[in-house]
UniProtKB/TrEMBL annotation:
Keywords: Cell inner membrane, Cell membrane, Membrane, Protein transport, Transmembrane, Transmembrane helix, Transport. Residues 101-190 form the T2SS protein K first SAM-like domain. Belongs to the GSP K family. It is found in: Cell inner membrane. The keyword Phosphoprotein does not apply. This is Type II secretion system protein K. It comes from Arenimonas caeni. One of its GO terms (biological process) is protein secretion. GO terms for cellular component: plasma membrane. SUPFAM superfamilies: GspK insert domain-like.
Length: 293
C-alpha cells in the first residue's frame, strides 16, 4: 500500500471512531434524559398514590360508625404519614355550600356580599347565574345576562339555558372574572340540589348568606372549629346542637408532600354509601390531580 493510501485509510478510521464516539455520547445522553424523565414520573406517581391514599382514608373515616372516630367535614386538616410522604387531608361537606342549580338569586347575592363584592356587581352576577341555568330567554328581575348581552360583550356563545354541570362553568357566566371565580368556587356546588345549605358545616360567608350576622357567624365557626369528636356538640345560634353526621356528599382535598418539598394534590367529590356500586365504599363524582396552587 502506498503512503498516500495509508494516510487516507488512517483518516477514514479516525473519522469512523469520531462518528462512533458521537453516537455513543448521544446514546448515553438520551439514556440519561430518559432515566431522569422516568425517575420524575415515578416520583410524581408515588406522590399521586400517596394523595389518593388520603382520599381512601377520608372515605373510610367518613363512613365510620363510631362518632368519635368519624372525620368531621368542616375543612379541618387531618395529617398522617404514608410511604415517605406527609399527607394532609381536608374534608368539606358539599351540603354546606350553595348549589348553583338550586339556590335562588337572593342567596347567591348574599354570598357575594359576604365575600365583599360590590352591591351592584353581586346583583348582576347572581342574576347572570340565574339566567345561565334557567330555560327561558327573559332577564332576571334584578338584572342578569341572556344571549343578547353575551353578544353585546363580543362573546360567541350565549346563556346556556340549562343547569350547571360543573362548578368551573361559572367562568363562562357574563361578568365573572378569575378573581371572582376563585372567591366563589369554594362555596358553591352542583352536587346537592338543595335550595339552602346546611349551617352545621358552613363557612362564615355561607352563614352570612343565610342571614347570620358576621359576629354570630364568626362565633359559630370558632365554636365548631374547637369542637372535637366525642365531646358534647356545641349549640348553634339557633340553640340546636351541632349535627355530627354530614350529608353524605363531600369534597376532599388530599395533599402529599415529600421531604424535598415536591407536592401533589388530589381533589375529589365523593358520595358515601348507598349510591356507590356494589363493593365500593363511595361513588366518585369529580376527580382532579395536580400540583397544589
Amino acid at each position: 500500500m502506498k503512503r498516500g493510501d495509508r494516510g487516507a485509510a488512517l483518516l477514514l478510521v479516525i473519522w469512523l471512531l469520531l462518528l462512533l464516539s458521537g453516537l455513543v455520547a448521544m446514546f448515553a445522553f438520551t439514556s440519561r434524559i430518559e432515566g431522569l424523565q422516568a425517575s420524575a414520573v415515578r416520583t410524581r406517581l408515588a406522590g399521586q398514590l400517596a394523595a389518593e391514599a388520603g382520599i381512601e382514608l377520608a372515605a373510610l373515616r367518613l363512613a365510620e360508625a363510631d362518632p368519635a372516630l368519624r372525620w368531621f367535614p368542616d375543612g379541618r386538616p387531618y395529617l398522617f404519614e404514608f410511604a415517605g410522604h406527609r399527607v394532609e387531608v381536608r374534608v368539606t361537606d358539599e351540603g354546606a355550600k350553595l348549589d348553583l342549580n338550586a339556590a335562588d338569586a337572593g342567596l347567591l347575592a348574599g354570598l357575594m356580599r359576604a365575600l365583599a363584592f360590590p352591591e351592584e356587581r353581586a346583583i348582576q352576577l347572581s342574576g347572570a347565574i340565574q339566567d345561565w341555568r334557567d330555560p327561558d330567554g327573559l332577564l332576571a328581575l334584578a338584572g342578569g345576562a341572556e344571549d343578547r348581552e353575551y353578544a353585546a360583550a363580543g362573546l360567541e356563545y350565549g346563556a346556556k339555558d340549562a343547569p350547571f354541570v360543573v362548578v368551573s362553568e361559572l367562568q363562562q357566566v357574563l361578568g365573572m372574572d378569575e378573581q371572582a371565580y376563585r372567591e366563589l368556587a369554594p362555596h358553591v356546588t352542583v352536587h346537592t340540589a338543595m335550595p339552602s345549605p346546611r349551617s352545621d358545616f358552613a363557612p362564615e360567608p355561607v352563614l352570612q348568606a343565610l342571614g347570620m350576622a358576621p359576629a354570630d357567624a364568626a362565633a359559630w365557626a370558632a365554636a365548631r372549629a374547637a369542637w372535637l369528636p366525642g365531646a358534647p356538640p356545641p349549640l348553634g345560634p339557633d340553640g340546636q346542637p351541632l349535627a355530627v353526621a354530614g350529608s353524605g356528599t363531600y369534597s376532599v382535598a388530599s395533599r402529599a408532600v415529600r421531604d424535598d418539598g415536591l407536592a401533589v394534590e388530589v381533589t375529589a367529590v365523593v358520595r358515601i354509601g348507598a349510591t356507590a356500586n356494589f363493593g365500593q365504599l363511595y361513588a366518585p363524582l369529580a376527580w382532579r390531580v395536580g400540583e397544589p396552587d
